[in-house]
């Protein structure tokens, strides 16, 4: 990509070559500075090139712009994404067209006339990519219609319709499908133009005096939308104004809805916004910019950092779908509101992504569609690629151990750590103070940064820069670590401080410069430091004692950079005079002029065999080294502004350059055979990073949490799959049943269709016969009538054809006569002129003596004669051209009339052909109906085949079901095997089984004597249980009733007290009535509350027990699943777990049965009182009888106590009833007395 320039001699193969590997940056002053070319390729300007960047594959292609082209104002890409137009402003503005596939220039479009215009206001491609519409700037404001492939202008017109409106044009928008229609907008200007016969004419809506338009685009071929600087959207369809909306407030836009709130005669939605611009001063805070349309809607920006998207719901309705926002911080003195002002919007080719740019040197994008996006109203933009610097990149540094580089920006106050091989940003940190310089330790683990208040020594962590030490050095513009990293040098005003990187002690203070120090250079042995400054001085410092060893002074030259060979034999410096200087032994040994006005940077490779110099306008020069005379070098151009820093990587394979416009370029150094430094074969770049202990623990903790979460998700997934399997089985059964029903329905429908089909065929046959007769009669009538008409029209046509031939002959004769007369007149004029010239020549020969006096008069007469002759020629040309134009118009008119007659004749022929065609179509319809009948037959057969196929599929599914059943049988066999294993496990419970067997032996001995007792025992057991349950329930009821009785007694006592207090109000019936109401409400509520406090404690206990059991079971299952998931054969473990779960359920059931049997045995022991291992039957019978007698006695006592309690309860109920009667009587007496008093008052 570089442009080679050789001085005096040709470049040899020994000069290293530079190839741009990655170019980062963005020119934010150009309109349309970012556009999608494909779904992954983005075109944007940076430096002196156009970059086509594929962010998915991380590749770049470049279009090299001419070196003089530093005034690009606009980029426009054609609709088919094949051509880009680069618009240049200046004394002679032009449009350069480049092919985006071949990356070569195709055409240059210039103004075809002399004009003071310096720029193009707007440029656009038409929809078919053949034409370029350009609007010139002030003062012309012309619209030029270029056929760009031929480079010529087809049509042109005034863009701003003078003298009615002489304002500026902001944008031109060609129609989406019609090349002959465009829309122009500007402050107070809205024009729809259409071209016919090479003339542009305006049509449609024009009343835009109060509308400061700022942008426009076509939504459909008939509908155009325009935005204003005061935040209004105007919709025009078919040339008529349809609707006006507030851009920031609109949620639904319907261009077909009329404004019902408007007055009579207003038919436009939002017509009250028409005159808004004329009411007061215009505010540009909500200016509508960058209107962009696509097939599913349109989008625009109307305030800082916000893009509003409207989605198309119908042909005339759009609904607000999302608001996309840019979130970014302030930059130095500019607020985020200014920096986030959007300048460009671009939609990807498949309309999935939206791209935008702002004043920042950064490109943003957002996904337009998706489920998550539809649910969110506001969505933030994301960066495309890596975060770039905004403004000059003042510092660059590389390290030896890692493939990393550190950069700093002065304007954005940002420090970035880059991986220049993977082309990624590893770390970004923004500071509140200005950052002036940066230098990396050779290990890449430490860094020194110069700030406006202090110099800081930092530790480079994985995600932060941690300050270790601060030094009181302000505004340090240059700092540099030594080659081994144990020292670093920093500039403090005009002095240089040398610090230890280990103890941070000040070792030396180097004094001598009288102006700013611009560069520092350490030798490989770290024993010597070189420095140069703006005072024209170069010093060599010894690190043994901090003294100056050598110095070189140059007047009228400010040194910007220097480099020294590894052996400290030669030094080379670059300065403001544009001359390379070689320094040896404290003197300037050689000077080389490489034809540059200023040199900013100079570099030598570690092998001392490659030299790179930064020259004018961002050029990088690869100079042949050692120098030869004349010098040989090659120029590589990517930047178009001054280069600030230039660094070579440790292996001499990559060059990094940064510029004042915020661009950074990574160059691959090629053609370096034998010139690059020889690296140690065992050397490898380090990948280690530093991380704090707290961060490491947080990371480990997060990993553990995520692993647990993964295990939980696995269990949830297994559970969901089981549920899905069961659900799918049910669905298959439902589908099978439904399928059988549909087959029967289809059979019935088929029979119905066959009957209907036979009926329709009969009807169609009848209709065909009727239509045949009617068509034949109509054809005969039309043939007779049209034959007569054709004869008449043919006579007229022959007459008109004769007239046309005669007029054409006359016109040709007149045209030839005019040409002959013109030729004769020109010959006469030329002969006269030659005669006059001969006479004048004779006079000149005769009057040679008076030639000086008459020369001037002769020249004047000569010029006047030439002008007169030219005027006469022009007048004759105009006269005959006008006559020729009139004759042509007559000829065109006659041709039009003949054309009309031809069309009439053709229409008559067409009518005849149409009738013939109708007959033909009727025949075709007959054949089609027959084919339809055949198709229906085929369909019927096809349906039978489909039914047979579906029957086969049903059989296949039944076979599958049988296979599933067979697999279930196999699983049953596995279950039996596992049950055998369970029996083996039960054998391990021998101690408990032996006790059970001993008890069984005792019971077997007693069975012969207790056969009758067992029946009695079972009956008594059931009766005892029933009586015990009744007793327990009665006990509970008794306790509740006792507590309720106590509460009632206390309430009655309190009620008696309150009644006594209320009895004092007997003389005041109204108060007594109110008091009684309060008492009734109080005690009625208390009683209800007391009655509703019953609580079943046993149910709660049982519920808690079941919850605990289920929790323990779930915990056991989780632990089993976690253990199984750790194994390698996870799927087999899942099958085993499922089988184990079924077996565990069976084991639990067996355990429950065992516990029940044991409990029954214990109950028998308790009933019989068998505490010993063996007991004679007589003692067992005695204990059984004693138990029965005790039970009956207890039952009788409980019944007696219950009867006593019921008597007490009845007495309490009687007392309560008496109290209620007394209360009711008191209330009734009080109400009657109050009514009597009211009657007496009314009588009075």
TrEMBL record:
Pfam families: WD40. InterPro entries: CFA-57, Quinoprotein_ADH-like_sf, WD40/YVTN_repeat-like_dom_sf, WD40_repeat_CS, WD40_repeat_dom_sf, WD40_rpt. Gene3D superfamilies: 1.10.287.1490, YVTN repeat-like/Quinoprotein amine dehydrogenase. SUPFAM superfamilies: Quinoprotein alcohol dehydrogenase-like (SSF50998), WD40 repeat-like (SSF50978). Keywords: Coiled coil, Repeat, WD repeat. Residues 743-781, 812-893, 996-1023, 1195-1222 form a coiled coil. WD repeats lie at residues 510-551, 636-669. This is Cilia- and flagella-associated protein 57. It comes from Laodelphax striatellus (Small brown planthopper). The lineage of its organism: Eukaryota, Metazoa, Ecdysozoa, Arthropoda, Hexapoda.
């Amino acid at each position: 990509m570089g442009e080679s320039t050789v001085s005096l001699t040709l470049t040899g193969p020994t000069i290293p070559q530079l190839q741009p590997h990655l170019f980062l940056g963005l020119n934010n002053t150009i309109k349309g500075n970012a556009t999608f070319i494909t779904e992954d390729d983005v075109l944007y300007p940076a430096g002196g090139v156009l970059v086509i960047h594929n962010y998915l594959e991380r590749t770049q292609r470049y279009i090299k712009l001419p070196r003089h082209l530093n005034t690009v104002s606009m980029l426009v890409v054609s609709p088919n994404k094949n051509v880009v137009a680069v618009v240049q402003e200046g004394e002679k503005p032009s449009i350069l067209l480049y092919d985006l596939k071949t990356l070569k220039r195709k055409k240059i479009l210039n103004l075809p006339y002399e004009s003071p215009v310096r720029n193009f206001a707007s440029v656009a491609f038409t929809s078919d990519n053949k034409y370029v519409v350009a609007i010139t700037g002030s003062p012309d404001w012309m619209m030029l219609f270029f056929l760009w492939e031929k480079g010529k202008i087809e049509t042109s017109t005034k863009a701003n319709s003078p003298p009615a409106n002489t304002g500026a044009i902001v944008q031109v928008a060609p129609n989406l499908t019609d090349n002959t229609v465009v829309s122009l907008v500007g402050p107070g200007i809205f024009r729809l133009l259409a071209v016919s016969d090479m003339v542009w004419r305006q049509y449609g809506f024009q009343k835009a005096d109060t509308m400061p338009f700022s942008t426009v685009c076509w939504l459909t071929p008939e509908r155009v939308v325009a935005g204003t600087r005061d935040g209004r959207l105007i919709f025009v369809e078919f040339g008529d104004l349809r609707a006006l909306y507030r851009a920031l407030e609109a949620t639904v836009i319907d261009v077909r809805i009329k404004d019902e709130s408007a007055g009579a005669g207003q038919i436009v939605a939002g017509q009250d916004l028409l005159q808004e611009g004329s009411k007061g001063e215009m505010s540009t805070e909500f200016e509508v910019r960058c209107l962009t349309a696509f097939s599913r809607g349109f989008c625009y920006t109307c305030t800082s950092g916000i893009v509003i998207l409207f989605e198309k719901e119908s042909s005339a309705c759009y609904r607000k779908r999302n608001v996309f926002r840019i979130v970014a911080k302030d930059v130095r003195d500019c607020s985020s509101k200014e920096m986030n002002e959007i300048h460009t919007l671009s939609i990807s080719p498949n309309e999935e992504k939206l791209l935008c740019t702002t004043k920042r040197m950064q490109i943003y994008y957002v996904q337009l569609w998706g489920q998550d996006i539809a649910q969110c109203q506001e969505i933030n933009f994301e960066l495309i690629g890596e975060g770039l610097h905004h403004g000059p990149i003042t510092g660059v540094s590389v390290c030896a151990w890692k493939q990393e580089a550190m950069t700093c920006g002065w304007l954005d106050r940002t420090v970035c750590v880059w991986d220049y091989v993977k082309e990624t940003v590893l770390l970004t940190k923004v500071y509140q103070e200005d950052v002036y310089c940066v230098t990396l330790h050779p290990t890449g683990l430490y860094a020194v940064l110069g700030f406006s208040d202090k110099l800081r020594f930092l530790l480079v962590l994985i995600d932060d820069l941690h300050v270790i030490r601060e030094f009181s050095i302000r505004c340090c513009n240059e700092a540099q670590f030594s080659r081994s990293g144990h020292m670093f040098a920093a500039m403090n005003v005009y002095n240089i401080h040398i610090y230890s990187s280990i103890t941070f002690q000040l070792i030396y203070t180097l004094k001598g410069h009288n102006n700013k120090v611009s560069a520092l250079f350490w030798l490989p042995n770290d024993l010597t430091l070189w420095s140069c400054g703006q005072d024209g001085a170069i010093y060599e410092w010894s690190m043994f004692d901090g003294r100056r060893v050598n110095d070189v002074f140059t007047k009228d030259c400010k040194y910007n950079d220097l480099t020294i060979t590894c052996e400290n034999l030669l030094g080379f410096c670059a300065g403001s005079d544009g001359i390379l200087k070689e320094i040896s032994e404290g003197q300037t040994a050689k000077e080389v002029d490489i034809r540059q006005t200023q040199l900013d940077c100079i570099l030598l490779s570690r092998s001392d065999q490659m030299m790179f110099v930064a020259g004018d306008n961002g050029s990088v020069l690869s100079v042949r080294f050692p120098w030869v005379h004349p010098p040989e070098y090659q120029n590589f151009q990517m930047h178009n502004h001054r280069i600030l820093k230039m660094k070579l990587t440790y292996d001499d394979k990559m060059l990094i350059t940064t510029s004042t416009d915020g661009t950074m370029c990574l160059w691959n150094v090629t053609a370096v055979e034998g010139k690059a430094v020889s690296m140690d074969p065992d050397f490898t770049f380090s990948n280690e990073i530093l991380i704090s202990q707290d961060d490491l623990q947080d990371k480990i903790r997060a990993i553990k949490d995520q692993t647990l979460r993964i295990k939980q998700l696995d269990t949830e997934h297994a559970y969901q799959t089981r549920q899905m399997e069961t659900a799918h089985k049910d669905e298959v059964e439902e589908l099978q049943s439904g399928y059988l029903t549909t087959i029967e329905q289809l059979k019935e429908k088929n029979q119905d269709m066959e009957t209907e089909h036979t009926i329709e065929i009969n009807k169609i046959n009848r209709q065909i016969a009727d239509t045949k007769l009617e068509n034949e009669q109509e054809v005969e009538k039309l043939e007779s009538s049209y034959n007569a008409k054709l004869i008449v029209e043919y006579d007229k046509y022959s007459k008109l054809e004769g007239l046309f031939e005669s007029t054409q002959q006359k016109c040709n004769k007149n045209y030839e006569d005019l040409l002959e007369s013109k030729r004769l007149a020109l010959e006469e004029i030329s002969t006269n002129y030659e005669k006059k010239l001969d006479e004048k020549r004779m006079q000149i020969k005769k009057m040679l003596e008076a030639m000086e006096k008459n020369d001037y008069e002769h020249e004047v007469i000569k010029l006047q004669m030439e002008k007169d002759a030219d005027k006469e020629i022009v007048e004759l040309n105009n006269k005959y051209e006008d006559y020729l134009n009139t004759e042509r118009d007559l000829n065109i008119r006659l041709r039009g009339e003949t054309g009309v007659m031809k069309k009439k004749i053709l229409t008559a022929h067409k009518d005849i052909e149409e009738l013939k065609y109708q007959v033909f179509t009727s025949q075709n319809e007959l054949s089609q109906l027959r084919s339809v009948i055949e198709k229906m037959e085929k369909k019927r057969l096809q349906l039978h085949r489909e039914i047979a196929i579906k029957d086969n599929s049903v059989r296949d599914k039944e076979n599958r079901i049988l296979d599933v059943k067979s697999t279930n049988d196999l699983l049953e066999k596995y279950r039996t095997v596992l049950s055998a294993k369970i029996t083996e496990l039960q054998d391990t419970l021998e101690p408990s089984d032996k006790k059970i067997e001993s008890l069984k032996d005792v019971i077997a001995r007693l069975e012969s004597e207790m056969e009758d007792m067992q029946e009695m025992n079972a009956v008594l057991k059931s009766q005892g249980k029933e009586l015990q349950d009744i007793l327990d329930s009665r006990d509970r009821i008794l306790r509740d009733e006792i507590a309720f009785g106590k509460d009632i007694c206390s309430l009655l006592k309190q009620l008696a007290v309150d009644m006594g207090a209320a009895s004092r109000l007997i003389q005041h019936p109204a108060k007594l009535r109110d008091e009684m109401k309060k008492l009734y409400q109080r005690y009625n509520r208390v009683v209800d509350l007391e009655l509703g406090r019953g609580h079943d404690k046993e149910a709660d206990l049982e519920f808690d027990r079941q919850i605990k059991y289920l929790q323990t079971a779930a915990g056991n299952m989780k632990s089993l699943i976690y253990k199984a998931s750790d194994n390698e054969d996870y799927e087999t473990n899942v099958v085993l777990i499922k089988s184990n779960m079924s077996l565990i359920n069976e084991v639990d059931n067996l355990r429950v049965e065992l516990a029940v049997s044991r409990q029954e045995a214990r109950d028998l022991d308790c009933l019989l009182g068998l505490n010993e291992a063996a007991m004679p039957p007589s003692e067992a019978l005695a204990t059984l009888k004693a138990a029965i007698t005790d039970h009956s006695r207890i039952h009788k006592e409980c019944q007696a106590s219950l009867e006593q309690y019921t008597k007490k309860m009845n007495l309490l109920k009687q007392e309560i009833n008496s109290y209620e009667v007394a209360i009711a009587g008191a209330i009734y007496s009080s109400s009657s007395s109050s009514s009597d008093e009211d009657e007496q008052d009314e009588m009075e």
